[in-house]
Amino acid sequence: MQNNSSKNETVVKAYSIPIQADGIILEFIEEYHRMARVVLQEILNAEKFTKFERKQLRDKLLEDWKYANHYVDSAINQMLGLVKSYRRKLRKGKKVRKPRLRKKFVYVKSTLFTLKGFILKITIIPREYYLEINLANYPYILPLLKEVWSGNLRLGGLFLFPDKLVLNFVKTVEYFEPRDWMSIDINLTNVTVLAGLTVYRFDTRELYHIHRVYELKRQKIQGISAWNKRLSEKLLKKYSGREKNRARDFLHKLANKIVGIARERRMGIILEDLNGIKERVLGGSKSLNRKLSKWNVRELQRLIEYKAKWFGVPVVYVNPKNSSKTCPACGGHLIPQEGRLMKCLKCGLVEDRDFIAVLNLRMWGSGVTPKGLEVSRASTLNERPMKTNPYGIMAIEEKQRIGLKFHKITPKPP
Ligand SMILES: [Zn+2]
User: Would you tell me which of 66, 193, 309, 406 could form a disulfide with 200, CB atoms 3.0–4.6 Å apart?
Assistant: First the structure.
């Protein structure tokens, strides 16, 4: 179990704004790219890139570099980072490609720009040429700008591309002391959340609908590939981008909803550690579907964790092994019943498997039983036809679990 509630961390929110670089700016980006490639080659060729070699390279590059000197340092640091991580992977015996610079962009560190009000001013050639961008033209970043002005956020290094500028808003987060914990179980067709005594169940079948629509499109496109391979590849790429965007949009809303509950109720979040992927979720489906469901689960976790961090909500991970097969009341073995019900062979408990999973995660992750929670003998969360709600993302069921009395729940260590 990793707990991040004790230390401070920085979280970055990146926003991209469209720009159109031309003239000097475009030339600058091109020249930076050429220079960075030279740097990369030099570092790769050097046995050990010493301080002396670094200084030599820097001096040589500066001879015909008319832009701010900082950009040369920036490029050296950036390329050093690339090569270091490449060599680290090599040492570990991983298969890695030699680093190459494909995308043209410039890293603009914070000493090379200023933000005054709405005006972002980037130094290109000191005292001679600056790139000025009026951020008032991008109203969607206004909430973040206000936070920068009030000192809650800072603007970190920028990425300047020919067609966009990426702004990185950096927040130092302080995790709050949770009043309670919320556990999350991600399944094929729903996401179940236990927050205090409330169980929320979110319908995620819309996601599968999205993937299904694109699967059909892919099949059609594959028909084209026989006579036009390039066209079919192009179409496949286009649709896969759209599919991911639609799915991501859905997952964003769902993650917002879940993190919103945690913030409102000052709860920490318990997620499943998927480093030994959940076969239960992925079982039985075709390989592409498996890949997509894996992607969905990981993407949702990533979004929840990221959004939680941004608001100082502590997050812990627990090993989910047997979380839906272990009786939360006595630790006995559960066997499947009709529908999604599970029954304990030892104590006779009958419960919904998703509820069992979140309850176990909740206990294993926080070490205690939710106060006042009683597990009922008869399930109050029966299978019901779920209604899809693609836009609002609402919990399809929200139930207070204060039901029939059952025996005391003994937490079982994972
Ligand atoms: Zn039991």
Answer: 193
Phi, psi of 358 (to 5 degrees): -65, -35
The pLDDT of residue 387? 38
- The rounded Å distance from CA 367 to ligand 1 centre is 18
DSSP-derived letter for residue 385 is P
Domain check: are 155 and 200 in the same one? Answer: no
End-to-end CA separation in angstroms for the chain: 10
Among the three residues 173, 198, 233, which one is the final residue of a domain in this structure? Answer: 173
Average pLDDT rounded to a whole number, residues 31-51: 92
Cα-to-centroid distance, 335 and ligand 1 (Å) = 11
Pick the residue with more confidence: 166 or 234? Answer: 166
The DSSP H or E segment spanning 28 is: helix 23-45
Residue 285 belongs to some domain of the structure: yes
Q: How far is the CA of 410 from the centre of ligand 1 (A)?
A: 10
pTM reported for the whole predicted model: 0.74
pLDDT value, residue 276: 58
- Which of 117, 151, 173 corresponds to the end of one domain? 173
Tell me, what amino acid is at 334?
L
